Amino acid sequence: MTHLLAQPSPAHHLGRTVYLGNIPADTSVTDILNHVHTGPVENIRMLPEKNCAFISFLDSTAAALFHSDAILKKLSFAGTELKVGWGKPSSVPSSVMVAVQQSSATRNVYLGNLPDEIQDDDLVADLSKFGQIEHVKIIKDKNIGFVHFLSISNAIKAVAQLPQEAKWSCRKVSYGRDRCAFGGRAQQQTNAYLQNHHQIYNLPYDLSADHMAMHLHHGIQPGNRTVYLGNIHPETTTEEICNVVRGGLLQHIRYIPDKHIAFVTFIDPNSAIAFVQLSNAQGLVIHNRRLKIGWGKSPGILPQAIGIAVSTGASRNVYIGNLDDSWNEDRLRQEFQEYGDIELVNTLKEKNCAFVNFTNITSAIKAIEAVKEKDEFKKLRVNYGKDRCGNPPRFVTMMQTPVMGPVTTIPEVEEPSTSQTYTRPDVLPNPSSAVNSTVPTNGHSRTVSLPMGLGNSNMYGLAIN
Fold it and tell me: Which stretches of sequence are listed as region Disordered (predicted)?
């Protein structure tokens, strides 16, 4: 039996060293590492004469994430976009690996019981003999400090030798957390994404030859994520199209009003297949006009950078919280329109928050990264919202046919969002909360079918009108 082969993740064959080129002459190591938040750095090497740098992470997962993130966000300094590539594959030095495993070594040295009068320059003077220092921070009210070296090996020397000096014998000297690392759920999700080579965001749609033949017979294009919508009413807006698209997160929606067509690109090809099947079976209507449903040109495999971002919560919807009365829809549009085309701005005055939906997920990723650096957003809460196109349908009843899947029903009942970050009144239940029982709607139910092999059909849905 023939299968489409999954491509290996770059995290497994491109190593742990990321190359950065085209770096402006006045850029410092600290400037660069201020943009690294994906995992502990083993060492960073700057080559000013060649305007480049090499960042070696402890593991390939962190390297792959930073590489993708830098490309997606177009890492720049002083208006100059950096070149991003891969350095030569290499192994972590055995002495460093042993220290990491046994002592949780990092390139950050923690210093405790510091005297009140100590300054940054004092720490630099005492510790620079162990190697070049990248960053120094003293927390006066706690009498502690942190000294980041360019490499873990230099920090190992400092931790081993500094306590032997009389001046430091009464101080605490150990390892602190590398400021380039981040933990929590986001890191775990990212690691799972990169390590699981069957993750849908990075790999082709994996079907057997027999299964693919069945799908093609039913007008399905395995692996294609772009759906064509035709016969669109001339008064239709992009917002109205998104209002009837359900069943999966969107990467991009492209509406061409003068041709009365649109192209909707999903993140997951499974979602695209299910949406086409359900739409053709039940019909998709906007302004009392039934749309034509088909396939657009396949966009290929989802870019890994977007896949990684999605695995850590990214969507085309930007949430802004802690808003005061000075923020209205016009101001939000003005602030965010430079990052891409906006599909919808939804303000919730009673909750002091708003949602800005872009037509492209890349625009949302760029926007979140950029606005966090602006003064007017410092006191606001900016994060990803939930793409409403990823909600299940309001109601779908499915029955078994000789070649199709089993009966599954999603009732037309709206429930509060299960999001722990915020609540939107227009959010439908998550797929896992759908009830698998037939519920009449105004005395009627609808019957559609899904192709076999699409897994939990509750995840996919038909837009309502």
Answer: 413-450
Q: How far is Cα 231 from Cα 293, in angstroms, rounded to an integer? A: 9
Task: Check if the beta carbon of residue 40 is closer than 8 Å to that of residue 182.
Answer: no
| Contact status, residue 453 vs residue 208, Cβ threshold 8 Å | no
Lowest mean pLDDT, pick from 257-266, 275-284, 417-426: 417-426
Angstrom CA distances, 35 to 72, 73, 138, 319, 379, stand at 13, 11, 21, 22, 21
For 316-385, CATH number? 3.30.70.330
Q: What is the pLDDT of residue 12?
A: 39
| Four-residue CA torsion sign, 277, 278, 281, 284 | negative
User: Do the first three CATH levels of 107-175 and 209-302+390-459 match, i.e. the same topology?
Assistant: yes
Return the closest-CA partner of residue 264 out of 387, 368, 346. Answer: 387
pLDDT bucket at 58, cuts 50 / 70 / 90: very high
Are 54 and 44 within 8 A, CB to CB?
yes
Is 127 within 8 Å of 133 (Cβ atoms)? yes
The predicted-structure confidence for 234-249, as pLDDT tens digits, reads as follows 999 999 999 999 989 9
The domain locations on the chain are 107-175, 209-302+390-459, 316-385
| Residue written as token pair 């949780």 | 104
CATH says 209-302+390-459 is which class? alpha beta
Phi, psi of 190 (to 5 degrees): -65, -45
Higher pLDDT, 405 or 54: 54
Range from 34-43, 59-68, 105-114, 355-364 carrying the lowest mean pLDDT: 59-68
**321-338 residue pLDDT tens:** 999 999 999 999 999 999
**Those residues with Cβ within 8 angstroms of residue 236's Cβ, 6 or more apart along the chain or in another chain:** 255, 257, 286, 287
Q: Starting from the edge strand earliest in sequence, which strands make up the sheet with 250-256, in order?
A: 250-256, 261-266, 226-230, 292-295
Q: Which fold has domain 107-175?
A: Alpha-Beta Plaits (3.30.70)
User: Which residues neighbour 343 within 8 Å (Cβ) at sequence distance 6 or greater?
Assistant: 238, 239, 242, 253, 316, 357, 358, 359
